[in-house]
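Practice problem. Given the sequence and the SMILES for thiamine diphosphate, write out the predicted structure.
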Amino acid sequence: MAIINGGELLIRALEHRGVREVFALSGGHLDPIFQACLDHDFRLVDTRHEQAAAHMADGFARTTGNPGVAIVTAGPGVTDAVTGVANAFMDAIPMICIGGRSPLRDEDKLPLQNLDQVALMKPITKYARTVFHPERIPEYLATAYRHAVSGRPGPVFLDIPIDVLHTPIEESDVPTFHEIAPAGRPVAEATAIELALDVLANAQRPAIFAGGGAWFSGAEDALREFAELTRIPVLANSKARGLVSERTPLGYGGFTLVGSPAVQAAAGGGPDVILMLGARAGMFTGSSGERQELIPDDATVIQVDVEAEEIGRTRDVQIGLVGDVRETLRSLIVGARSRSFADHERWIDALAAARDEARRVPDDVQTDDAAPIHQVRLTNEIAEFLDGDSIIVADGGDTSGWMGGQALVEGGGRWMSHGYLGCLGVGIPFALAAKVAHPDRRVLTIIGDGSVGLNFAEFDTAVRHDLPIVVVVNNDEGWGMVRHGQISKYGGDRTAGVELGATRYDLAAAGFGAHTEFVEHASEIRPALERAFASGKPACINVLSDPTLSPRAYRAQQSQVTPREEPAEVAAGNREVELPYYGRRRL
Ligand SMILES: Cc1ncc(C[n+]2csc(CCOP(=O)(O)OP(=O)(O)O)c2C)c(N)n1
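Answer key:
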C-alpha cells in the first residue's frame, strides 16, 4: 500500500487531464506540489511575477484551445494572479488557477499570507472552492476542469491549504474521477437550423462574426468548410483570427471592415445578414462604448451561442440558436449542401479590396529611411517577414491597432491580443506560453514601450527556460494611445502622465541574457528580425517609432474621413512639445 500526499494527488489529477506543463511562482505553501512536478517530470515554468504565470495559463489556452494551469502561492501570490484570472474571465478563456493557502489548523489565528482567496476569486471565475480533504483533490479538480471547459469556458480557482497538501493518505483510499466530460454537445433543433439557412441563402451581403466560441469548440475545420460552401466571408475577433486564413478573400481579422464606408460604397451597403458564431455583442461589435455600431439596425441577425442568455445581449436577434458552435456548423453544413446561395462576389471583392488598401504602405513611407520609423512600415515589415505558422502577440494601445491592421493570420491560435479587460502587459507572457505550446513555430510579440514595462522581467523566464521568443518594442516614448486621447480632448499642452523616455529596453533585456537589437531606421528592421530569430535566443528589438502617429488618425486620413474623437487639427499636428531624444516635435 503506497502512502501519497495532496501535492502528488493534484499532479496526478492534472496529468490525467493531459496537462504536462504548469506556470508557477514558488512559495513554501506549494512545496508538495512542486515536489510532485519533479516526480512526474512536469514542465514547471517558473515566472518572475504571478500575474505573468496567470497570463501564461490564459495564453496557453488561447493558443492551444485547452486549459492552461497557473499555480501561485498563498496570499500575495493569489492577489498577484488576480489580473491574469480576470483577463481570462472577461474573454471566456478556460484556465485553472491553483492557489496555496495557509493551514486549516491556523484558520482565524492570523497566520501568514492568509485572506479569503475564494471570495476574492469568485467574481472573476466560473467556480472557486477550497479543498478541505486531501482525498477529495481529484474530485474537486475534475469539477473545476468541467466548469472551465463546458458551456461558455472560463477560469476556475481552487485553493488547497498546506496541511491538506501535506497530509499522508493511503493511495487506495482515494476515489478516482476520470470520466468527467459529457458525451454530446448541445445543438439547436432542425427547424431552427433550416430557418437560419433560408435567411443566409437569400442574403446579398452576409457576414459571419466568429468569436472564441468557434475556436474553443474546435470548429476550425467546420467553419472553413461552411465559409467555402456558402462563400460567406468570416470576420473574427482576437480569439478566432486565422480560423479561416486571412490570406484568402473569405477570412478577415476584426469586425470593423464591414463598417468601412469604402466597402459599403463598393458593395451597395453594409451587411444585411450577420451570423454570430460564439461571439458576444459588445465593444468589439460596436454595441457598447463609443465605437461605430457594426451591426446595422435593419440587418437580420442569427446568433449561435452555447449560453442562451447571451443571445440578444444588445439588440433583437431574429434567429437565436442555442448550441455548440462546431456542432451547429456541422448541421448548417449538411443543410447548406443541398441549397444554392445568392452570389456575394461583389461584397467579397469589396472587403478584400478594403483590406488590401488598409494594409498598403504608402510609397513615401515605403521609401523613407529617416528616423523615426512609421508604425505602418514597422508592422508591415513584421507581417511580411513572418510565415503562416508563426504566432503573433500584440500588446499595447496603438501598437495592437497598428499590428492588427497588418497581420494576416493563417490558422487558429496564431494571433493573441487584448480582449474585454483591455489589459496591457499580456505580450511577453502570452508569447512565452505560445512558445511552450509550439516550440517549432516562430513566436513574435510586438509591445508598446509602456506595456513592455509591465512584465519586462519575464525576459528572465524566457532565458532560463530557453524560450526564444522575439519581442519587438514599438518605442514611441510614451503611453501613445492615452497621449493621443489627451491631446485630442484637452489640447497638446495638457498631457499628463503619458510621456516616457527613449529608454534602451534592448540594453535592459541584455541584462537578462537576451539577444538585442536597437533600430532607428526602417531599412534595419528586416535584418534585425533575421538576426533575432537566427540567434536562437529570446530577443529584444527596440524600435524607435514616430510618437506623432496614431492608427485612428492615420486610417481616417487614408480614407479621407475625419475621426470622430480626434479633431482634424490633431491629426495634422498642431502643438509643439519637447520630447526626450527627439527634441522639439510637432504632435
Ligand atoms: C494594465 C493597464 N494599465 C493601463 C491601461 C490604460 N491604457 C490603455 S492604452 C494605454 C497606453 C499604452 O501605451 P503603450 O503600451 O506604450 O502602447 P501605445 O499606445 O504607445 O502603442 C494605457 C496606459 C490599460 N488598458 N491596462
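Check your answer against the key. Confidence is low (pLDDT under 50) at residues 561-575.
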